[in-house]
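Study the following:
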Amino acid sequence: MNEKIKPTDNYYLYSHEFDQIKSFVIFFDDLIYNYELLTKMKYILKKYKRFEKAENDDDIFDREYRYSAFVLYVSAFYSARTFKAIRPHYQFLCRGNSTVSTRVACEDHEPMFLESVQMYFDKAAKISGVSPKTISHMEAPDCMLKVTFPIEVDDKVEIITGYRVHHSRHLLPVKGGIRFSPEVEEQEVTALAALMTYKCAIVDVPFGGAKGGISVDPSKYTIAELERITRRYTVELCQKAFIGPGTDVPAPDVGTGPREMSWIMDTYRQFHPNDVDSIGCVTGKPIPLGGVRGRNEATGLGVFYGIREFISYPEVQKHTGLSGNIKDLSIIIQGFGKVGYWAAKFFEKNGAKIIGIGEKECGVYNSNGLNVDELFKYRLSNGSLHGAPNVEIIEDPLQILDLECDVLIPAALERQIGLRNADKIKAKIIGEAANGPTTPLANEILLKKGILIIPDLLLNAGGVTVSYFEWLKNLSHMRFGRMTRKWDELGKSQLVELVERNVGHKLSDTEKEQIVHGADESDLVYSGLEDTMIRACMETRKTSISKEVDYRTAAFVNAIEKIAAVYEGSGMMFMN
């Protein structure tokens, strides 16, 4: 008889499953009953109220959460070393019944990046009002390309591995960056592709979500070697139809920039010499090759716009005790690359005090404020923040996250705030400039502490927004403002002259220039990005208030409902 066994108050496990788990763990003689870990996981298990067998395929939530919690429950009792050994058995038990991956947990017993994204998604899906059928279709990635190819380096042959994941092609082209990092692997790329789908939906950018990467450390290769790797990867994308202005438009990410985008575009053009829109096959290009002014700083500027918008809301000011004035903010930023630097730059320019900056080698702190440009130039010339003048050096870069401040901006990599340090966070607001910097377990701890979290899929959407602008520029084959700037200036100039005649007062040349100035490309890009971020923040706020949920859940709900409208309206779910 398949009776139910009740190992915890809120979790039912069917006896045949209990027998299966016993059958393979009994062979391990080093099992550890981990009370500390079980305590950490208990509050997660308490969230799940039903773990009965789903009565039908539509009832995916019970099925998905039942198996997910099954994994959490078992891993709570055994050591990380043993967990690694029995991980394949989890996959066997969950196949066809769960989105649980083979990497559901890691050394610190927290969900991996992909599982974290799925947990956030599932939480929002339950309150979104979207049908389970649509949800199940939406969550699964559409397709994944994995390529391997040989590259000759120092008279030796290296096998390079690259990925490109299309998470959702409900809208085309799909959009997402390409990163060069030794950490690149299938699960990470899939998680990032999913975030791109939701991110585009939140800011109303009409793209599907994608992501790519090559598992290399770019610092260990010459420029010529990196070019060969990039071009060969692009050849693979071209041959598999994973790139094109109407299909898949990559962009820079960690370890890549305008240089790599130029190589990709040039390679694509060799395969498609008659494609008049080939310049739009990739974004983040140098200006002379079709890039758009403002793309380099776009993500950091979007972070600034988003945080500025949220602190202007009365309920946020009441909750945090902040005045709503940028000039009153103390800010700590983890990550001093393209995103972190530009975010720091815009906050400093508008009067905020940057008191701490962290990088992989160390952190720097000064309660009176740091000079962002001086520090950036120092690190550029010295390769490290060590030895920087007029700062306190923090040897453990992760400790920069624990320092007291008004706003903490993680702008590095994923999973920087977890169980190990969530209790130590003293910031009033966390603005997630990086992708996935906060784990689900840490997220719950931070919310209980009353810390407001502005989520990554909203706050760092400035990059894809301006990439969209660049793509539009490439398809129109014309610089923004080219047809309108002088006409606008003429109209304003005539208006100024009319006012001067009527009031009998002449403006100075400087005043007149400020008024008459017509919008150039960077002005239009900044304006479009500001409007996009403000609207997305307002929508997130509205959903958060109406559904009484945190900002992350609200952002996911908005994304899910927008994507579902496309799926259900077009009938894409049922296309073969």
